[in-house]
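Notebook entry, structure prediction.
Reason for the run: the old model in the group folder had no record of what sequence produced it. Starting over properly, with the input documented here first.
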Amino acid sequence: MVVPPYFDVPPKAYGGVEAVVADLVDALVTRGHDVTLIGAGEPGTKAKFVPVWDRALPERLGEPFPEVVHALKSRRAIEHIAATSGIDVVHDHTFAGPLNVPAYQKLGLPTVVTVHGPVEDDSYRYYRELGDEVALVAISDRQRALAPDLNWVGRVHNALHVDQWPFRVDKGNYALFLGRFNECKAPHLALEAAHAAGIPLVLAGKCSEPPEQAYFEKVVRPLLTAQDHVFGLADAAAKRKLLSGARCLLFPIRWEEPFGMVMIEAMVCGTPVVALRGGAVDEVIVDGVTGRICDDPAELPAAIAQVGALDPAACRAHVEANFASDSLGRGYEQVYHRLLRQGRKARAARWVDETVPVQVAASELA
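New structure, fully documented this time:
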């Protein structure tokens, strides 16, 4: 299991990929698999941890250098593990990691790549250029449908450990925005909706990169009122407290969100989600049961009022039934077994081609 070098697994605060991978490796170990996790930072899962950097590199998120060097370091580590203790499958969660697939093929190692981001524009061209050598896994049906010609081998929804999240029926008097500060996540729409609904808004999330800070100063700050509260980046404990206490989570996305972990994090706490339709929202929220899905920002204020009547227990039950970590482990387990079977069939076919003698007619020998 290969993760990016930017955050611990599980992350102490921001880190959606790392949170998913932490639950995945723990689920796989619980299911009896021997998992080695390659990344950076401190160990925090049931997997054997192989750090290939001295520390995590959060300040370098978005730079090409650590991404490429991490791919090289990970390949060396995998080559060493394959030679000393053996590997069945490589599962990569990074962007540059798939470039190592030809090297892994020489070692006879099938490689699974989870596409955690959108498949559009440059990212689509990148995955298309990888061809059929790389087995891609989508995190939502919508993500897969947007690029049907890529080499998808499965879809596995993200999930979480339900028992690690609090459940609360009585809610505070605030709505919550939790996410990165940018136009795609649209906290400005969350502010406008909360103000129209007459409810305070707590804004928590990542705002450390220059584009995020510029967006905050230009778009978000002018909308803030005395009843709003900018919490900042929430660590794991603070995030759980904010989500479980909110009347609702506002998720007014303006892009093709591949999944949206914060939606299931809110619902598992018994907190409904008010969202704009887009990306995987329709796959995650049950409209009228675990939240409201709106088609226009003007519908958000009314939806905030409506979700107060929804049952918090139904929100949690929906996550337990559809997005629990065991389903994550089981889903990827099926993908691994499928690739291993395909690999065995391919090797058997090559063996037959190389060893079965050619049948020659007697007339041809005359």
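Summary: The radius of gyration is 23 Å.
The old model has been moved to the deprecated folder.
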